[in-house]
Design a protein that fits this description.
150 residues, alpha/beta, 34% helix, 24% strand
Length: 150
């Protein structure tokens, strides 16, 4: 399995406002190519990459041992519409979702629940980015934050 990142994904990673020490949530990480690249740019930050597919998460873990050992990257198998922070898990500064079906407008109920879950997992100033801009677009979460549980 190739671990080389595509130019499209690299453009997305490079467009993210990654700063030293931030916490990133990647939604729909697939085999973890983008998560590994982000983990290399985080300094002492942290990325949690989630995907609904057990196979994708297994591939991601298998290909990411080096990055996981640094403590800067972990994977969790969970669908975004079911995602919740673990007890004691800190909020994230940014979330990134590339080609995520629950956020592409085709499943409004799933999308609402997913955006609520994302809003609940981000800091007050936390931002959600998805593909489809140039190369990213930010999704405003204010209406979901009002309903957030924190």
């Amino acid at each position: 399995m190739s671990t080389k990142i595509s130019n499209r994904l690299l453009d997305i990673v490079n467009a993210l406002p990654i700063k030293e020490g931030i916490r990133v949530l990647e939604i729909g990480c697939g085999p973890g190519v983008m998560a590994r690249e982000i983990s290399r740019q985080l300094g002492n930050g942290y990325i949690l990459a989630i995907d609904r597919s057990a196979k994708a998460i297994q591939q991601a873990i298998t290909a990411s041992h080096k990055e996981i050992e640094t403590g800067k990257l972990s994977f969790r198998q969970v669908a975004v519409e079911e995602f919740e922070l673990e007890p004691e898990e800190e909020l994230y500064d940014i979330a990134i979702a590339v080609r995520v079906g629950a956020l592409d407008g085709r499943h409004p109920k799933l999308e609402t629940q997913s955006l609520l879950n994302i809003a609940n997992s981000l800091t007050k100033k936390g931002k959600l980015f998805i593909d489809g801009g140039n190369p990213l677009k930010e999704i405003q979460l204010d209406e979901y934050r009002k309903n957030a549980s924190h």
